[in-house]
What we know:
The chain has helices at residues 6-32, 47-69, 78-99, 103-127, 129-133, 136-155. By secondary structure, the chain is mainly alpha-helical. It has one domain: Ferritin (Up-down Bundle). The chain is elongated.
Amino acid sequence: MKIKSIPKLAISLIIPQLAGFIGSNFTTDSISSWYETLAKPEFTPPNYVFGPVWITLYFLIGVSLYLVWTSEKRKSGKLLVIFGVQMFLNAIWSIAFFGLQSPILGLAIIIPLLGSIALMIGTFWRASRPASYVLIPYIVWVSIATYLNYNIWVLN
């Protein structure tokens, strides 16, 4: 990856980490209290997995943003708007699910989040295929999170 703009790279990497930081402020306390009391499906990763996975995903999301933002094929700001919408949904999911302790509200947010990630991958494809490829782990993980969110809602 050739770095075309250090400021754009820094901004691209910081934005997703900021969304993660916002979400973590609502998540951390709930993990050891409310979340522990919930019935969960069998396929629930251990709590210690979530932090490192999300840090890695936020890094990849930032790389993807940078690749699109500096792409010669990017024709409009539409790509950045799609990115912004999914980042907003990403941040507010943690507020809804963990902060408000509402699996149903979390589900109402994570489903559009999943759709916005799919839209982002498809739209980014036209500007930068590598930008789309690095988002595959993100959509896989959010698909797992959607499954967990749905089952937690059903079980509780």
